[in-house]
């Protein structure tokens, strides 16, 4: 067994060798990617209400209003381009948006605009840029105008317009 003893002795010699020096410092990379985008604050049930108010059936003249009620606010990464487009509504005909009398067929034409001066029309399906100064409190700029003819039957006139917001 002297040969076996030598193998054991050799094994002991290797086990008693000094340990290899381990690296105790190094580096690792840390990164994050911030994606540009927007957030609809408070969820979406409706973007607001465009209400021309209550008028006499005999009233004539131009009536204007702006998107109000509980309106939606958007928050966007600074510099994100936000745009919106509006369809013709449920009662559009021949390229004109119309309010329709509940329970009737009578129509009242109206126009939508992106500015309070009523100079920038929001055409059916046209996309327009939404400008903003505060990226944390963006409201949709929608203004409406109609001309009362003075001979409409009394009733409630309504329409529903679909808004598509993209960024």
TrEMBL record:
The chain crosses the membrane at residues 32-50. It comes from Pseudomonas fakonensis. Residues 1-22 form the signal peptide. This is Spore coat U domain-containing protein. The lineage of its organism: Bacteria, Pseudomonadati, Pseudomonadota, Gammaproteobacteria, Pseudomonadales. Residues 24-164 form the Spore coat protein U/FanG domain. It holds the Pfam family SCPU. Keywords: Membrane, Signal, Transmembrane, Transmembrane helix.
